[in-house]
Amino acid sequence: xxxxxxxxxxxxxxxxxxxxxxxxxxxxxxxxxxxxxxxxxxxxxxxxxxxxxxxxxxxxxxxxxxxxxxxxxxxxxxxxxxxxxxxxxxxxxxxxxxxxxxxxxxxxxxxxxxxxxxxxxxxxxxxxxxxxxxxxxxxxxxxxxxxxxxxxxxxxxxxxxxxxxxxxxxxxxxxxxxxxxxxxxxxxxxxxxxxxxxxxxxxxxxxxxxxxxxxxxxxxxxxxxxxxxxxxxxxxxxxxxxxxxxxxxx
Length: 250
Prior knowledge:
- The chain is an alpha/beta fold and about 250 residues long.
- Helix content is about 35%, strand content about 20%.
- It has 10 helices and 9 strands.
- Strands 1, 2, 3, 4, 5, 6, 7, 8 and 9 form a 9-stranded mixed β-sheet that branches.
- Helix 1 runs parallel beside helix 3.
- About 45% of the residues are buried.
């Protein structure tokens, strides 16, 4: 059986506050092959890890991420909302997160959620190169134009087109095919459960597939039978154990 890649969604977000260094460390400790995180930018354009465009859900701050200076974002508490044990957890910068995973040989799925100007995307691509992580980075986004811009700035990093609705699949596949060896489609797992043939169609055209977000073992089994080999999950330890069982059985 081909290797099954377990991708930690926002870090090990079932065990630590999402998109924090603690969540990344927990994912690495649990045996994840890859860590996925979300990117917005501070008012200066510095990329930071946070899912929402606003601060309220996962920090003690208020307002838009892009309206705050980096030093303001760094003073916020991004951990207490999850558990008081994580009080004082900071919003990491992209550079800090990359440095955290770099010694471990881990792959990064960097999902770009928001930016101010296109040059912010160029900065992300340059930062990944400067840290020496381009070969282990997959830039992904629901906004296909973001992925195309990043691809134009980096010929080494892989690129993933995130598909949430069936109508997006053909366009995502078309764009991914234009990046031979570097492009993939990142599908909602619900889409594949409803239409397993999507994986076969992508593979037939030389394009790899990842799926998000798989937390139920029965669904993981069905996705595996459909040909999926890259699984994004909140339940990292559970899925790592599942992979060990399936690999042993295979």
